[in-house]
Amino acid sequence: MAKIAILDEHIANQIAAGEVVERPASVVKELVENAIDAEATKIEVTVEEGGLQLIRVTDNGSGIEPEDCETAFYRHATSKITSGRDLFQIRSLGFRGEALPSIAAVAKVRLVSSSNDTGLGRVIEIEGGSLKLNEDIAAPQGTDIWVKELFYNTPARLKYMKTIQTELGHISDVMYRQALAHPEIAFTLRHNGNTLLQSPGGGDLLQVIAAIYGVNASKGMVPIEAEDLDYRITGFIGRPDLARSNRGGMSTIVNGRYIRNPGLHQAILRAYHTLLPINRYPLVVLMLDMHPSLVDVNVHPAKLEVRFSKEPELNGFVESSVRAVLSGQVLIPQVVRQTIGKGPNRSVIQEQFHFPAPPLGAEEGTSAAGQTAAAAETTLRPPGNGGAERDPGARSAGPDRGWGGAPQRSAAAFGAPAAAEGLTLRERGAAGAGTYGAAPSPAKPQGGLGQTGAAAYGGGAAERQPLPAARLQEMPEALYGSPEAAPELPAFPELSLIGQHHGTYLIAQNDQGLYLIDQHAAHERVNYEYYYEKFGRPADASQELLIPITLEFTPSDSAKLQERLHWFEQVGVVLEHFGGGTFRVVAHPYWFPQGEEASIIEEMAEWVLSERAIDLAKLREASSTMVSCKASIKANQKLTPEEANTLIRRLAACKQPYTCPHGRPIIVSFSTYDLEKLFKRVM
After folding, report:
1. pLDDT for 47
2. Secondary structure of 56-94 in the HEC alphabet?
3. Alpha-carbon gap, residue 522 to 650, rounded angstroms
4. pLDDT at 376
5. What per-residue confidence (pLDDT) applies to 146?
6. First CA to last CA distance, the chain
7. For residue 429, what pLDDT is reported?
């Protein structure tokens, strides 16, 4: 007796509904996509009780012909494709013909549609897959579809629905993605009578971003536009200070369809390399346009997953395009963001004095103090504004004073031995001449870390003269390679040092405002770019040790480590198994921070053991980050003005001077307007 039977149409639709209609948000997505395919310019979505009680989608599109209204609810009925060839060039959002019958199988559906402006339309009512009503009705052009009591006939599915707020969150996310993908359409979302989204629909993507993420977020977005032979990219990418705790802010849209693709997300994250803190993600809206033959959208009934025919090329193009835009931005977060009044006529700006700031390095071109008393008096006096004269005794500007009235160190102090008062890089774990741009001589290795005094922080009086333009151009080459390979970067702001706060932050200024610099993060960035270049040439860096370093590991880690010893050689570390859980370090790069060699190699070993598949680029990256952190000056560490100015100069010469290798900001700013607002000088 035959056991195989063809399923009833109603049962087949219920099974299909399990794939297409996962939750109320799935219904909203399918109905909104149908409205978009109908060339609607205005789409309104109304939901009640998280979509479980009611989902209503109204549009002003082309509508459905009266004779097609019933046919539209048949399985695999679609107007989007007519032959198998059409599957290779799908340009519409819907094409499978499964959405409407799947929805009608698990809900009560009412459809009112008109395909013209005569005022005559057709109404269809279906309950649980059974047709209840099909007749003419008065209706405006467009489609109005009601979905009531979702999953009323499938209690098992209804049982696993989440809370109303959770389901509403999924619906909102769908509507946000659709509004971002189609800024030319005016979207409205209401829940229980409350308006949650209302996009303008004028085609301005930035206005849609402001409506979804807020005005402040839209102000931090940077436009992107790139094109090659196969792909075109448009949209906006967020500055690093707009980073979020999850990937929800990353929207990738292909030919008007929001998709989720891990490869594209990874390409975007690689472009933000070292610009974002750990476990933080950017706010990005990328619109990709390509020929339909280059992408397969027929992968899953939900149509959220796609396949690209040239995925490596696409990922590389996205990464390079995003990185190019970010490299052209001055990524200094502005701390205070305030608005004033309702119009420009409401603002009153108090008359203010303007103090000319000395150029960077001016304090280094004079005596140990950097300025004479007369020069300081000239600088502090308001030029030609009739302001009160400052008391010369109120601030000591003599040749023996530094910032804050502290005794200034003489030039001789910078050339003193390690026991002298001046800062030494070996004592402070800094990267020495190599770190600050002067590469160690290959003929006489100096360790990079052992240079002290003037050699470490720029030399004697001759070295501390204002640097010529040619010298500034040489700095990047000494730090990380040939300047010809470096991309065009915006100029780092020219800063004049004011002082140091709590031994942690450098305070600087220019005519734009006030700047705070994290000295550890700044030094870490300088070190990172130096060490990253060094780790790229391990054979030139490694030196054999007279007394090997001994490291101990657990038996399980030891067995795994023996199989991965060759990876250490890729970064200049020669590690040998010495029996049991003991390993010997017989060679390592000579520029490792003195006293930190063992801890650095242990961290490298921990990283190598934790990685499933080791990539040389990732190993080089991780090693550079570890060493740069160990070698950098720490918080609560006093710097002299010469040391601080040198650090600022070296930071300005970096490829990416705005974030440390871990993605934390190095420098933040207070604009002059922000300060005036704080002190109520702007009313």
Report:
1. 96
2. EEEECCCCCCHHHCCHHHCCCCCCCCCCHHHHHCCCCCC
3. 9
4. 33
5. 96
6. 91
7. 37
The correct CATH number of 220-327 out of 3.30.420.140, 3.30.230.10, 3.60.15.10, 3.90.550.10 is 3.30.230.10
- Residue 308 CA to residue 294 CA, distance in Å, equals 6
Q: For residues 72 and 70, what is the distance between their CA atoms, to the nearest angstrom? A: 5
Please list, in sequence order, all residues whose beta carbon lies within 8 angstroms of the beta carbon of residue 617, skipping any fewer than 6 positions away: none
Tens of pLDDT, residues 134-150: 999 999 999 999 999 99
**Cα 509 to the chain's mean position, in Å?**
27
Q: What's the half-sphere exposure (Cβ side, CA atoms, 13 Å) at 115?
A: 8
Which residue in this structure is represented by tokens 């046919």?
Answer: 71
CB 223 within 8 A of CB 205: no
Q: Which residues touch 286 (CB under 8 Å, ≥6 apart)?
A: 224, 233, 235, 237, 251, 252, 253, 264, 268, 318, 322
What b/e sequence results for 581-603 when a residue is b if at least 16 CB atoms lie within 10 Å of its CB, and e otherwise? bebebbbbbbbbbbebbeebbbb
* Beta-strand relationship, 42-48 and 667-671: unpaired
pTM given for the model: 0.70
* pLDDT per residue as tens digits for the range 111-138: 999 998 888 999 999 998 889 999 999 9
DSSP state of 281: B
d(CA 309, CA 503): 55
In the chain, CATH 3.30.565.10 sits at 9-198
Return the DSSP state at 338.
-
Domain with CATH 3.30.230.10 in the chain: 220-327
The radius of gyration computed from the CA coordinates of the chain, to the nearest angstrom, equals: 33
Q: Which residues contact 655 (CB under 8 A, 6 or more apart)?
A: 476, 480, 486, 489, 529
pLDDT beneath 70, residues of the chain: 1, 10, 13-19, 336-489, 538-541, 683
Q: Which long-range contacts (CB under 8 A, 24 or more apart) does 616-622 make?
A: 616/567, 616/570, 619/567, 619/570, 619/571, 620/532, 620/535, 620/536, 620/570, 620/571, 621/532
CA pair distance 646, 517, nearest whole angstrom: 13
d(CA 26, CA 33): 11
Q: Which two tokens stand for residue 523?
A: 């030094």
- Domain 9-198 sits in CATH at 3.30.565.10
Q: Give the CA-trace dihedral at 488, 494, 499, 502, to 10 degrees.
A: -30
Per DSSP bridges, beta strands 186-191 and 42-48 are parallel
Quickly count: other Cβ atoms within 10 Å of residue 279's Cβ. 9
